[in-house]
Amino acid sequence: MIAAAAENNALGKDNDLLWHLPDDFKRFKKLTSGHKIIMGRKTYESFPKPLPNRTHIIITRDKNYTVNYDECLVVHSLEEAIDLVENEIAFIIGGGEIYKQGEKASDKIELTRVHGTFEDADTYFPEIDENYWMLTKQEFHPTDEKHKLSFTYLTYVKKEDTLKSL
């Protein structure tokens, strides 16, 4: 899973992000380029067009939903999405409900923790349970001329003894 979430786990409002962090966008692009990205329909529709150099797997309950891009596949459950990912790296990129469902199937979380709280959000990242997840890396990014908020890149890996129990 890959996400940017505030300290209160806020992800977004009205299908948009609550902040603008250019370095986080660059990191997202670097990590996800060349891989499959799994998302809900609303997340997909928040993009002006498909993201380059990635296969988009879009989850929707709407059996009639179609997308006219070769790099996009439409499925109707997270299980179907995961079936399209064999032994390759794929990223669950949102939204909130897809993250909740995806936690069991994931073995790693790349989280950008945005230092701030946003009470007016309507989408949230699930709480990270440190009984199941171990923080393995963190890198702080202070505010600067391009970033009004500070943030920390956090990498969590699922603990070995909990890989199947979540």
UniProtKB/TrEMBL annotation:
<dbReference type="GO" id="GO:0004146">
    <property type="term" value="F:dihydrofolate reductase activity"/>
</dbReference>
<dbReference type="GO" id="GO:0006730">
    <property type="term" value="P:one-carbon metabolic process"/>
</dbReference>
<keyword id="KW-0521">NADP</keyword>
<comment type="pathway">
    <text>Cofactor biosynthesis; tetrahydrofolate biosynthesis; 5,6,7,8-tetrahydrofolate from 7,8-dihydrofolate: step 1/1.</text>
</comment>
<comment type="function">
    <text>Key enzyme in folate metabolism. Catalyzes an essential reaction for de novo glycine and purine synthesis, and for DNA precursor synthesis.</text>
</comment>
<keyword id="KW-0560">Oxidoreductase</keyword>
<dbReference type="GO" id="GO:0050661">
    <property type="term" value="F:NADP binding"/>
</dbReference>
<dbReference type="GO" id="GO:0046452">
    <property type="term" value="P:dihydrofolate metabolic process"/>
</dbReference>
<feature type="domain" description="DHFR">
    <location>
        <begin position="1"/>
        <end position="158"/>
    </location>
</feature>
<protein>
    <recommendedName>
        <fullName>Dihydrofolate reductase</fullName>
        <ecNumber>1.5.1.3</ecNumber>
    </recommendedName>
</protein>
<dbReference type="GO" id="GO:0046654">
    <property type="term" value="P:tetrahydrofolate biosynthetic process"/>
</dbReference>
<dbReference type="Pfam" id="PF00186">
    <property type="entry name" value="DHFR_1"/>
</dbReference>
<dbReference type="GO" id="GO:0046655">
    <property type="term" value="P:folic acid metabolic process"/>
</dbReference>
<comment type="similarity">
    <text>Belongs to the dihydrofolate reductase family.</text>
</comment>
<dbReference type="InterPro" id="IPR024072">
    <property type="entry name" value="DHFR-like_dom_sf"/>
</dbReference>
<dbReference type="GO" id="GO:0005829">
    <property type="term" value="C:cytosol"/>
</dbReference>
<keyword id="KW-0554">One-carbon metabolism</keyword>
<dbReference type="InterPro" id="IPR001796">
    <property type="entry name" value="DHFR_dom"/>
</dbReference>
<dbReference type="InterPro" id="IPR012259">
    <property type="entry name" value="DHFR"/>
</dbReference>
